Amino acid sequence: MRSTFLGFNAARSGLFSSQRALDITGHNIANANTEGYSRQRLEQSSSISMKLQGGQGMLGTGVDTKEIQQIRNEFIDHQLRQENTDLGYWGARAEGLEMLEMILNEPSDTGITEVMDDFFYAVDTLAKNPGDSDITVRAQVREEAIAFTKTLNHLYSQMEQNVRNTDDEINNTVTEINDLTKGISRLNKQIYTLESDGSNANDLRDDRNVMLDELSKLADVRVSEYTEKIVGSEEGAGKKMMIEINGRPLVDHDTAYAIETEETYSDIYDGDNPEAEIPITQLTWAGREELTGDLGGELQALVDLRDGDSAGEKGYPYYMKELNTFAQTFAKEVNELHSRGYGLGSDVLEDENGNPVQEDGAGYLMFTRDNENSIDLYEDGEVNYKEINARNISISADVDEDLNRIATSLDGSQGDASIAEQIGQMRNDRTMFQEGKPEDFMKALIGNLGVDAKEANRNRDNQEGLVGMLDYKRESIMGVSMDEEMSNMIKFQHAYNASARMMTTMDEMLDVVINRLGTVGR
């Protein structure tokens, strides 16, 4: 036979269950605009039924609340974070290459192609009046040569500064990663403690998921949870989290392993010139070993921009080396012609065999490094033009100090302009560079950069669309719908009222039994 108060217990459980469901609905509504919040739901099940005495069947005893469940799809989380990593990479790379395009600034009135044309135009003008005592034309050649070298110096300096800025960004990104992993490890400890009795720390898990989303954009991390026996817990096992980067742990439950930085010097920007070494940051995992390989995300994009020196990985070093090649080749070709000629007022002497002996203005270089007069030689006597790069190219002090030393003549005669003419014709020399004439070299360089930048922008836009789609899909699952919550609120309110009404009905029934039964005829 059932207990007299069994109906009260069933109604009471319904009352408490509806009240908890209303509390959760209110929590969902309050956090409708909270970033990263996942809506929650009360999981209910019927209480254990009791067997009827003297009859068949089972009698229900009410409702039990099992858990407060977080509505979230872990597979979509995994997908979104993978795509977020690629978005971080292409976004940072696109931004870096756009900055490089602004530095090279081609085509423009102040770009290297324009100042190079101005130099050739000045040389052509001098070739038309090689013996003119008016130094105005020669001064123009010097000024245009200086403008050409200063432009190369400035371009290289800006690229060098970009390398330093990128290195600073790497340090900032590493700091951000370390801050996130520390925060995640603290949350892991709290979640593990709170869930040791079988509860769900839903709000803390939301906070952790927001951090994981941010971390996934900075680097390619692998997130996994594993179970571990909880001593003294009837639930048996708790979940711990592992986060790895390139096979090395960043977070192992409540322990965070920091990415550390160490300053070193790199010669990849110009291996032939020790003075061109730039201080850069080397990354190590937990101070134990160098962190190499594909790190993914913004961090890898910044490292590629800073260190990419090959045609397969075009970063700042690749374009700096190309600019150095241009400066070296241009200086070599001009100097080899200029050093064979004579300037204004040069005396031409002959040896006993009638061959001219170069003297005074003859043998001077047009371009050297750091405004010097000469360039070092190799052991075999060849000029070491690798000393010259875009960073240090300048006109020689000899030419800078005496305009008459600008060579125009091959034989020393005042009316001869063959050297100046040959230098002027270099603008159309298609054998000067592998890409063709000097202008072709710069066009190829700018073209390659444009292709790289366009690819980065296209991939960034594609990833933004993909991440946006996945985020919308995730939000449709975990996000709070005000219409749905209002509907639930009304539903749970009616359920609460019905349970309360049930208790009132049971009270009235018992009142009849206790106070009225057997009183008829008194």
Automatic annotation (TrEMBL):
Swiss-Prot/TrEMBL keywords: Bacterial flagellum, Cell projection, Cilium, Flagellum, Secreted
InterPro entries in the record: Flag_bb_rod_N (IPR001444), Flg_bb/hook_C_dom (IPR010930), FlgK (IPR002371), FlgK_helical (IPR053927)
Source organism superkingdom: Bacteria
A single GO BP: bacterial-type flagellum assembly
Gene Ontology CC terms: bacterial-type flagellum hook; extracellular region
GO MF term list: structural molecule activity
Subcellular location: Bacterial flagellum; Secreted
Domain Flagellar basal-body/hook protein C-terminal as annotated: residue spans: 479-515
Protein name in UniProt: Flagellar hook-associated protein 1
Organism: Isachenkonia alkalipeptolytica
